[in-house]
Design brief:
The complex is a heterodimer of chains A (114) and B (115). With 114 residues, chain A is an all-beta fold. Chain A is built from no helices and eleven strands. Chain B is built from no helices and twelve strands. In chain B, strands 2, 5, 6, 10, 11 and 12 form a six-stranded mixed β-sheet that branches. The chains are: A mainly beta (114), B mainly beta (115).
């Protein structure tokens, strides 16, 4: 079965640079979520989108922004990168009409800021 | 606010031992509850879920029952295998009817199964 696709899988940036992470949800899924997982930490919810509209917001820094496009893929834009932004970034998707209870996670993008 | 508390690891067991990983939660209303598993270097895989009180989620020999009276969702397996070694996360989704709410995770329990 098709899964959530994230690109790139690995990304190395320097402080103060900008990064863009992409997420392609499972086909027919209409909702995407972004999470950040620091080393040895639990995933922290950042933001979610349904039908291109922001739906829920968690602990997303003001330096980060995200959007969902008409084909349901999503991008997380991160500016003025800091060392503390080094983490695994997961995207998840769900189907709202099914209650949205089950979120399916992608393999993650490992961002390293040097 | 919402929170999930699960037992800290690592938890080390011998193969074929009985497993319990405790999870309790704090939330208003009736959240949905989940267990996710994360193998080294991989993403999170949904293991099982329960969406209302007294529901029992089960998958691959694992099971957990949604206990509202004790606000718990403990994970159990009767006989663990080496391949079960991973990090297990308990998570909740608040009840809002909207369907796009972010999950709140516990800190994770690292399970190590020795042959």
């Amino acid at each position: 079965a098709a899964g959530v696709i994230q690109s790139p899988r690995h990304l190395i940036k320097e402080k103060r640079e900008t990064a863009t992470l992409k997420c392609y949800p499972i086909p027919r899924h209409d909702t995407v979520y972004w999470y950040q997982q620091g080393p040895g930490q639990d995933p922290q919810f950042l933001i979610s989108f349904y039908e291109k509209m922001q739906s829920d917001k968690g602990s997303i820094p003001d330096r980060f922004s995200a959007q969902q496009f008409s084909d349901y893929h999503s991008e997380l834009n991160m500016s003025s990168l800091e060392l503390g932004d080094s983490a695994l970034y997961f995207c998840a998707s769900s189907l709202k009409i099914a209650g949205g209870y089950e979120q399916y996670f992608g393999p993650g993008t490992r961002l390293t800021v040097t | 606010g919402n929170s999930v508390t699960q037992m800290e690891g690592p938890v080390t067991l011998s193969e074929e031992a009985f497993l319990t990983i405790n999870c309790t939660y704090t939330a208003t209303g009736y959240p949905s509850l989940f267990w996710y598993v994360q193998y080294p270097g991989e993403g999170l895989q949904l293991l099982l879920k329960a969406t209302k009180a007294d529901d029992k989620g089960s998958n691959k020999g694992f099971e957990a029952t949604y206990r509202k009276e004790t606000t718990s969702f403990h994970l159990e397996k009767g006989s663990v295998q080496v391949s079960d070694s991973a990090v297990y996360f308990c998570a909740l989704r608040p009840y809002s009817g909207g369907g796009a709410d972010g999950l709140t995770f516990g800190k994770g329990t690292h399970l190590i199964i020795q042959p």
